[in-house]
Amino acid sequence: MKDNSNLEKMEALIASYPICQYGFLDTRELVFSDHVRQICQQECECYGTTWSCPPAVGSVDKCSRKCLNYRKALLFTTLAEVSDTALLKETLATRKDHEEVTRGLLLDIKNSMYEDCMALSSESCHICEQCTYPDAPCRHPDKMFPCIESYGILVTESAEKCQIDFFYDSTTVTWFGMIFFDRYK
User: Fold this and answer.
1) By C-alpha distance, which of 178, 176, 179 is closest to 80?
2) Angle at alpha carbon of residue 75, lines to 80 and 162, rounded to 5°
3) Which of the residues 22, 31, 46, 122 has an alpha carbon 20 to 30 A from that of 159?
């Protein structure tokens, strides 16, 4: 952070949201891996179907350069209770609240401290019922947050560095968000 007043201001903003845990990282601490991208390609049904996922977001190298344009990253979690996290439809239905927290916090940070910042979030974008990818530009580029993993970021390692719990139990969904700020000039 540039100074303690910005840290205090950011922590006050964070406290005004239902954020469970958070931590700050120097972006040079982030680990970017093509292996994460390979997992996306092999296991995620959203791969190649939205603007928020690979290959639309660019190569891992391109994504890492975007992130490394900033000095700091805020990693945070929100939690949601479900009957069973294995029930994908129920689990994904809780994501909207997390996205609203991410969007609100990003706007508050932009409006009060760092005009130029960038957010990544959990899962693929689901703002539109049908994404325009690859036939037309994104309808909501200002609202769409790429998935953290789509950038090749090892979320588990980042969470560990911030001492953030990754898993609670089979009825608690942990959603992750990441906001990059303090851009290099």
Assistant:
1) 176
2) 105
3) 46
Q: What angle do CA 122, 106, 30 make, to 5 degrees?
A: 55
pTM of the model: 0.92
Whole-angstrom distance, CA of residue 157 vs CA of residue 63:
18
Q: What is the pLDDT of residue 1?
A: 45
Q: Cα separation of 116 and 118, whole Å?
A: 7
CB atoms within 10 A of CB 44: 17
| Angle between helices 4-15 and 95-112 in degrees, nearest 10 | 150
Nearby residues of 3 by Cβ (< 8 Å), 6 or more positions away: none
Residue 146 tokens read as 């790429």
Structure tokens at 111: 């409006």
Are the CB atoms for 94 and 82 separated by under 8 Å? yes
Residue with tokens 């942990």: 174
Token representation of residue 125: 């974008």
Check if the beta carbon of residue 70 is closer than 8 Å to that of residue 183: yes
Burial state string for 120-146 with b = 16 or more CB within 10 A and e = fewer than 16: bbbbbbebeeebebeeeebeeeeebbb
Q: What is the pLDDT of the chain when averaged over all its residues? A: 92
pLDDT digits (tens, 9 = 90+) for 41-82: 888 888 999 999 999 999 999 999 999 999 999 999 999 999
